[in-house]
Each structure stands twice: as C-alpha cells, then as structure tokens.
Design a protein that fits this description.
With 253 residues, the chain is mainly alpha-helical. It contains eleven helices and two strands, in the order H-H-H-E-H-H-H-H-H-E-H-H-H.
Length: 253
C-alpha cells in the first residue's frame, strides 16, 4: 500500500495563518489613530475661539504660553495683573506708537504693513515686522514663538481678525499689557514697572513708559533700567510721538 504524500513545505501553515479577527484589527488600527488625530486637531483649533469668549470679562486674568512654559519647567515668573485703569496712560500710548501705530484703526491686521512685508520679500529685501498688538496678543495667548514661525503666522492672522471682532480694543490692550514679557520671568506691566523702576504701573513717568515700550521687541536683550545710547534715542522718539498721539490712541478712552 502506497504511503500518503506529505508536502512538508505547506505543513503547519494552518497553525500560523492569521485569524480573520486579527486582519480586521490591523486594518482598523490606522483609522482609529487617524480619527483620534482629527479629533485632537479640531479641539486645538476650537480652543482659542472658546477661550477668547472666556477672556472677555475683566475679572478673568489670562496667562501666556510662555508663562505656562515657565510653570512647566519650574522656572517661575513674576506677573501681577493690573487693570488698564491703573496703568499710566503714557505707557499705553507709548506702546501703541512703538509697536502698532494703527492699533485703533485696523481690524487685527495692518494690511498696509503686511503688504509692505510681502513686497519686500518678493523684491528679495530684508523684511520688517508687521505684527500688530492684536497679533502679538494672539501669539502670546495661544501660539508659540519658535520653531515654525511661518506656520504660526498662518494661524495667527485669522485668529487676530477673530479676536478683534470679539474683543474691544481696550480689553485687547489690557490683556496685552498684562501678558507681555519685559525680561526673563517678568510678565505684565505692573511686574515690569516694579522690577525695573521700583514704582507701580500707575506712577510711571513718560520717560519710563517710553523706555519700557521700546524694550518690547527684545525684552531679554534690552534693559529699560540701563538703556544704551541707541535705546535712549529710540525712547526719546517714542516719548515725543506718544505726547502727540491724539486720535491714534482714541480707542482706549
């Protein structure tokens, strides 16, 4: 009687053949993570929209992403919230004339400045900053500084328009002055005034206000209490402009 032929190459394949349920699980696994990723992206996109409404009441004191980073790294920081009514008018006027002269007139974005930046970039020239106070507030509240700055700008622009639609100019300025960085671990105008000049924000002189305003573009490298010749000249220019700012600061009244 002939012995049955056994194919040793195929023997045992039934033992290692994947179960039907496993194949389905492998197919579903990527979809599961895609859905989760989309959900997270939607939540992150909606957070600034919701938080902006939560920040409308004057008794709410927002913190910046830099403050949260300092907390997460146990660095600590000094921030003392102060109402805009308790800030020397010269400070807000100096900040507008230094950082965003069209603050009271634009809708979150200064299209003229933005157009100039685009033209300079297309011409291969060095571009200048075009961030408005509203855009800086959006960045400080919701976004990041580095890396991927160009990606941040794409997100920043529509958020700035939205914030300007929802918030009053006065509230935007109040939040900005209370979350802006004025030195390592120094946030907000009250902490800055106390740290650099030993006075409250309400008692800042016009000169001190101008020095603090011109420090904002680079608060780590610039020291308003010990200004160099260049910073002193710039502060003198801003002090003169703030003194005759007039309609440029009308939205803060």
């Amino acid at each position: 009687m002939a012995e049955p032929i056994v194919d040793h190459e195929t023997e045992g394949l039934d033992m290692v053949r994947p179960k039907r349920g496993n194949r389905i699980g492998l197919k579903r696994w990527p979809r599961h993570w895609v859905r989760r990723g989309i959900t997270i992206a939607v939540v992150l996109a909606l957070m600034p929209l919701v938080l902006t409404f939560l920040y409308l009441p004057p008794f709410v004191h927002p913190v910046s992403t830099l403050m949260l980073k300092d907390l997460a790294t146990f660095s600590g920081y000094d921030r003392r919230w102060v109402s805009i009514d308790d800030v020397a008018p010269a400070l807000a006027h100096s900040v507008i004339m230094s950082e965003d002269g069209q603050f009271c007139f634009h809708r979150g974005i200064d299209l003229g400045e933005l157009r100039g930046v685009v033209d300079d970039a297309l011409a291969g020239e060095m571009t200048r900053g075009a961030s408005t106070i509203t855009m800086q507030s959006v960045k400080n509240l919701y976004l990041w500084s580095r890396p991927l700055g160009s990606v941040r700008k794409v997100v920043e622009l529509p958020l700035a328009v939205y914030v300007d639609m929802v918030m009053s100019k006065r509230r935007i300025m109040e939040i900005y002055l209370n979350i802006a960085e004025w030195g390592p671990g120094i946030y907000g105008i009250e902490a800055a005034a106390q740290h650099h000049f030993g006075v409250s924000a309400k008692r800042l002189s016009r000169r001190q206000a101008a020095l603090l305003a011109v420090t904002l573009p680079n608060p780590i490298a610039r020291n308003p209490a010990k200004p160099g010749p260049g910073l002193r000249r710039l502060a003198s220019l801003i002090e003169r402009r703030a003194g005759r700012s007039g309609a440029y600061v009308g939205c803060l009244r």
